[in-house]
Structure formats: C-alpha cells, structure tokens
C-alpha cells in the first residue's frame, strides 16, 4: 500500500474531494416555512395567562406529534436543549444547597444546568465501554444533599436505565435524561429519554434532525410539564392568574420556539427514522470492515439497546497498537478530507470527545455566578466541592488516550465514501510502525 500522507505520500482521499454534506433539510421544510411566512405569525406566544401562553398552532402541533412518536404524555418545545435542561432542573424544584450528580463527559450544559438554581454539580465517572454515567460510580458520590441525577445518553446510546432507576428509587432521587444526542435510541423496547422523570432532546444544527436551534422536553408527569411550560414563558407573570400555588423556581425565561422552527421540526420528525436507518447502515458497513485491527476497534453498543450513532467511536489501545494515539490519529486525519458545508472544521474526527467538564475554569476556580464563589460556597451549602484532576480516571483515560470519534457515517455518505474511510483506517494501521 502507498506511503502514508503524513510522510509525504498521497492521501486516500485528496483534500479537494470533500465528503458529502450532511443536510437533512429538503423541499418539505421549505414549504412548511413558506406556510408560516404566509400566515404572518412567526411566533404566537404571550407571556401571561392566556390561551396563547402555550404558543401558536405549529408549536402545539409539533409538541403533540413529538409526544405521539415517542409515546409520552407531554412534550414541551423550547429554543434549545440548554434551555430545556435549565427548565428541567427548575421544574424538579432543585434549590441552593442541593447537589446534582452529573456526567463529566458531555456538552457542558449537562453539568452546569444545576448552577442556575444554586445547586452544586457533583461528578461521577463514566462507563469505559459506553461512556454514560457509571451506576457504580454514582453510588460513591451520593450524599444527603443529593437531589437528582442528570444522565447523558452519550453519542447516541441510552444509559443503563434499569441500574439508574434502582439507585434513584433507593435514594429518592429524580432523574433527567439528557437525550440530546440520541433521538429514537431504544432501551428495552422504549425510547431513550422517555424512561426518566424528564427527557431532553436537542434540535440544534448538528443533531440527527434539526430546526437550527430547538428542543423538546418530555415527561409523563403533568406537574413537571406545567412547571417547564411556566419556566419557558415568564412563569412569574402567569402563576397567579393560572392558580399555581407552588412558586418555587417560578421565575421564568423566554425559552420559546418560534412557529417557523416548529414547522420545520414537524417535517424533520417525519424523516427521523430514515436518517437513523442510514446511520445504522453506514456504521454497520464501517464496523464490519474494521474488526481486524487489534488495538483499534469500533465500540460496542449496550446489550438490549438500539444505538443511533450521533457519532461513531473507536477504542484505541496504545499498548496493543504500538504507537501513541495522537500519532495514529494525525496520520489518519492526513489521509482524509473535510466534509462539504463544514470545510473549516477539517476532517470530522476527534481525539477523545471533550475535556472532562470538571477541568473547565468555572469548576477549577469555583466561580460561576458573581465573584464570591456562589453556589460552590454559600450559606446554604454544607458540602465540599471536588473537581481535581484524576477524580474520574475512566473519563480522563478515554479522553487522553483511548477514544477516537468520527462523523463520517452520517446520511449522504455513499459506499465509495465509506470505503475511503475504511481504507484510511487500514492504511494507517498497516503502516503504523513507520510512524515511530
Ligand atoms: C449531550 C448534549 N446536551 C445538551 C446539548 C445542548 O444542546 P443545545 O445546543 O440544543 O442547547 C448538547 C448540544 O450539543 C448535547 O450534545
């Protein structure tokens, strides 16, 4: 096989042969947007107790359709999963002095949402094979202050719902599932995100289906649904007239999704299964042809679940492969090309996923709201926050040494595109010793 690109050889995929764009938006979405534009009502919300407190016809139809598809009682549309997670924490009644167990391996809001209500995030470690919060690690960080767990269905795969439910029940904890990356993932015949007190889906530009920005928060609990609707839309101006007695955390935001976004979302939802099906097909193709590289292997999915592959991950073992991960990874990237519409991001591959969240400055400095350390230090909080390097060894090992992720299995990749990805894996693997 030819010389490695990183050593001056010809890459498997020349940089000017971009991989196909992932663009799930089509004519149906354009027609839906035109329908809303023609109506002139781009958002119909009113921030007081009025029939329009719940938004306009597109938002309400989208919520009904999402709830029906996922088999839940309520879906509350919001303008981002960031907003959705904040609203979920508020709806649960989390307050200053409480602790919420969070994942260090996620997009940061999965861990920072409790801060908005004065609660302290407590990090547990993740599972080495599936990257969701590890139930065993969760048990070691529960204290009398723990009120909830925010668990992330990372990279498209459900967390261990049964194990987490047992812990939550035993300790009287609420569970928010951050299912931003896993719409229509399955855990034992049910949709991920629907098996917790609240589930949060994201519709941002990078997700399986999107509305530019957006979110659906789902729950089977009438009170939690109402509290999220209130936080979404100026709760403080609504509670009195609506007759809501519990005003804890009833300070609202404007977390509202527009009619245009909802109209797009309704069309996107119809396409979700087909897009997921294509991801599964592409991952299966890459996975089957990548089993012969000891030390570099596609990750497994949890038994009894359906993974929907927001990203596809490999586990790298430097001792077996014989070269450091970064050397291998840089050689791999040099063999491949960026994707259309995302040229500036380079080849869509990552060493690890994100830096463990507790290593971010807000946790290292313990400065979030104001300059005096609130909520890490306050008259309400009786614990001692821990955010030191080394506290979650599995996530640090995954991120520093073991994990390689890529997006080159998204819908739109033709077989010859997937073959280039697979050829690049093999080329670098077979020539890896030349890299030393
Ligand atoms: C796991 C996870 N949670 C939450 C979010 C936040 O989503 P949004 O961009 O819709 O606010 C993201 C976004 O990437 C995510 O991946």
From TrEMBL:
Parts forming coiled coils: none
Gene3D superfamilies reported in the protein's UniProt record: Aspartate Aminotransferase, domain 1, Type I PLP-dependent aspartate aminotransferase-like (Major domain)
Highest classification ranks of the organism: Bacteria, Candidatus Kaiseribacteriota
Family per similarity comment: Belongs to the DegT/DnrJ/EryC1 family.
UniProt-recorded name of the protein: DegT/DnrJ/EryC1/StrS aminotransferase
Protein biosynthesis recorded as keyword: no
Keywords: Aminotransferase, Pyridoxal phosphate, Transferase
Catalytic residues, chain numbering: 207 (proton acceptor)
Domain of life per record: Bacteria
Swiss-Prot/TrEMBL GO biological process terms: polysaccharide biosynthetic process
Modification N6-(pyridoxal phosphate)lysine, positions: 207
Molecular functions (GO terms): pyridoxal phosphate binding; transaminase activity
């Amino acid at each position: 096989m030819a010389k490695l690109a990183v050593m001056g050889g010809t890459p498997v995929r020349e940089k000017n042969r971009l991989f196909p764009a992932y663009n799930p938006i089509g004519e149906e979405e354009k027609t839906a947007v035109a329908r809303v534009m023609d109506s002139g009502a781009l958002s119909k919300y009113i921030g007081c107790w009025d029939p329009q407190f719940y938004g306009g016809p597109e938002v309400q139809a989208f919520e009904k359709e999402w709830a029906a598809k996922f088999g839940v009682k309520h879906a509350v549309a919001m303008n981002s999963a960031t907003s959705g997670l904040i609203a979920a924490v508020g709806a649960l009644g989390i307050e200053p002095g409480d602790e919420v167990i969070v994942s260090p391996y996620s997009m940061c809001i999965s861990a920072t949402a409790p801060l908005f209500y004065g609660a302290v995030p407590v990090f547990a470690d993740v599972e080495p094979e599936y990257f969701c919060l590890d139930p065993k690690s969760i048990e070691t960080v529960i204290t009398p202050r723990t009120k909830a767990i925010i668990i992330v269905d990372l990279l498209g795969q459900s967390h261990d719902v049964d194990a987490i439910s047992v812990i939550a029940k035993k300790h009287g904890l609420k569970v928010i599932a951050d299912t931003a990356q896993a719409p229509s993932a399955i855990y034992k015949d049910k949709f991920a995100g629907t098996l917790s007190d609240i589930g949060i889906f994201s519709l941002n530009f990078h997700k399986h289906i999107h509305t530019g920005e957006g979110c659906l928060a789902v729950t089977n609990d009438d009170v939690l649904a109402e509290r999220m609707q209130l936080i979404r839309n100026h709760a403080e101006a609504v509670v009195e007239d609506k007759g809501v007695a519990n005003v804890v955390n009833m300070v609202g935001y404007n977390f509202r999704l527009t009619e245009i976004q909802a109209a797009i979302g309704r069309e996107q939802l119809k396409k979700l299964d087909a897009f997921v099906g294509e991801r599964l097909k592409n991952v299966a193709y890459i996975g089957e042809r990548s089993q012969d590289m000891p030390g570099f292997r596609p990750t497994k999915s949890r038994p009894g679940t359906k993974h929907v592959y927001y990203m596809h991950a490999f586990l790298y073992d430097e001792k077996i492969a014989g070269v450091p991960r970064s050397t291998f990874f840089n050689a791999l990237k040099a063999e491949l090309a960026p994707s259309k519409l995302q040229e500036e991001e380079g080849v869509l591959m990552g060493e690890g996923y994100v830096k463990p969240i507790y290593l971010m400055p807000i946790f290292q400095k313990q400065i979030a709201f104001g300059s005096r350390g609130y909520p890490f230090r306050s008259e309400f909080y009786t614990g001692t926050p821990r955010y030191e390097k080394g506290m979650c060894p599995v996530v640090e090992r995954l991120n520093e040494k073991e994990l390689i992720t890529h997006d080159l299995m998204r819908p739109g990749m033709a077989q010859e595109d997937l073959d280039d990805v697979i050829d690049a894996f093999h080329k670098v693997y077979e020539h890896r010793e030349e890299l030393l």
